[in-house]
Design brief:
Layout: H1 14-26, E1 31-36, H2 61-77, E2 83-88, H3 97-115, E3 118-124, H4 132-140, E4 145-150, H5 154-160, E5 162-164, E6 167-168, H6 170-182, E7 186-193, H7 213-216, E8 219-225, H8 235-249, E9 273-276, E10 281-283, E11 297-299, E12 305-307, H9 309-314, H10 322-325, H11 330-333, H12 339-344, H13 357-369
Parallel strand pairs: 1-2, 1-9, 2-3, 3-4, 4-7, 7-8
Antiparallel strand pairs: 5-6, 9-10, 10-11, 11-12
């Protein structure tokens, strides 16, 4: 029990140990992560979307050039860097594939080859705009993965994500997911579930019956409750049953280590990470809107990020919350290891699990049932 960390010696300062782990995890200069937002516009208008769509927004040449300079700087000056993560977000990033995505993707790819740095490239997209030309370049530049979202089965999805009142998007997105995995590009399939659509989710499996088992394994299911809706009794259990069925069909489930949010902290918690908006504003967290008052820096003409006070506040905010310091699951949770959540509540006591002991125990149970027995 002692060797496995279930019992902690009295003289051991577990809080200091966790602080050191946070430092090792979040201030790691072997990796730089860059998120590029080509636009804040989108071809869909999903009712629950937290972003303000900005019609006509598009990254222009000056911002593109600054990003290329930033890339040059990071590849040339980060001597310990072994990995580079490039991702695209928005808005819908594929709206400007030729004008924004391709120039930055090509530049990063060439730099990674030149410097012998491992490159991982990811897109968060609705998946509707993938065509032959896009696929050709995704394969050419060795793109690794996509996150694509369904809002239920075909009937429910088409009520949320549609081209017009008479034309839905479900069939086109299903087809594109198949093209991706058949080209060895993995897909994180996020399903937004609600009380109304949960029972129809099994229908989605019928759409992928023609995929081989090898290609089904390239799809990882992520069940996500639409946060605007109230939690209801039994909804979590239903989502677990859906996950089990999809897993039985051949889809992968998330790595249980992701529940250890201290070791697997969000990319926005990392020092060596930035999200560049279409106008050159720099952010960390992409789960909030991209208003100027939320930015944490700007990208200057030399391709350098000039961080503001909020960035430095973010990098020192973790584990200052007293309830976290006294919590039984602090060594794996650390306040959800979410600097954004902590920043927004820095003057109050908070718990990411709403001080619900049952919810905390469920985190441990999920990790145990899925085989993650990692100790701090």
């Amino acid at each position: 029990m002692l060797n496995s960390g279930f019992i902690v010696p009295e003289e051991e300062n577990e809080l200091e140990k966790v602080k050191m782990l946070i430092k090792e995890t979040d201030i790691n200069d072997e990796l730089f992560s860059l998120m590029v937002l080509p636009t804040m516009n989108c071809n869909f208008k999903c009712w629950y979307c937290y972003e303000s769509h900005i019609k006509g927004s598009k990254m222009q040449e000056p911002a593109l050039n600054k990003i290329k300079l930033l890339l040059n700087n990071k590849f040339n000056t980060m001597q310990n860097m072994k990995n580079f993560h490039l991702s695209y977000f928005g808005g819908e990033p594929l709206l400007y594939f030729d004008d924004v995505v391709l120039p930055t993707l090509r530049h990063t790819y060439n730099l990674s080859k030149q410097h012998n740095i491992s490159l991982f490239t990811h897109f968060t997209t609705n998946g509707f705009l993938i065509n032959d030309y896009v696929m050709e370049n995704l394969v050419k530049y060795e793109v690794n993965s996509f996150q694509i979202t369904f809002d239920g089965n075909k009937e429910n999805h088409n009520k949320v994500r549609y081209v017009s009142k008479t034309r839905g998007s479900y069939d086109g997105i299903v087809s594109n997911i198949k093209r991706l995995v058949r080209s060895n590009i993995k897909v994180s399939l996020r399903i937004n579930y609600t009380n109304d659509n949960i029972d129809g989710l099994y229908d989605i499996l019928d759409s992928f019956q023609d995929l081989s088992m090898d290609n089904r394994k390239k799809i990882t299911l992520h069940m996500q409750r639409v946060w605007q809706e109230k939690k209801t009794e039994g909804l979590f259990q239903k989502s677990r049953q859906v996950s089990d069925k999809f897993n039985e069909f051949g889809f992968q489930l998330p790595n249980p280590k992701a529940l250890n949010t201290l070791r697997q902290s969000c990319y926005a918690d990392k020092k060596y990470q930035a999200a560049i908006n279409y106008n050159g504003d720099v952010f960390k967290c992409n789960a909030r809107d991209f208003k100027k008052e939320n930015r944490e820096g700007i990208l200057n003409d030399k391709g350098e990020i000039e961080w503001n006070a909020q960035f430095y506040d973010r990098m020192s905010i973790k584990l200052k919350n007293k309830p976290c310091q006294e919590c039984s699951i602090m060594p794996i949770c650390g306040g959800g290891a979410c600097s954004q959540y902590a920043l927004e509540r820095k003057n109050e006591d908070f718990c990411i699990h709403d001080f619900d002991e049952k919810s905390k125990k469920n985190v441990i149970l999920e990790m145990f049932l899925n085989g993650d027995h990692t100790r701090v």
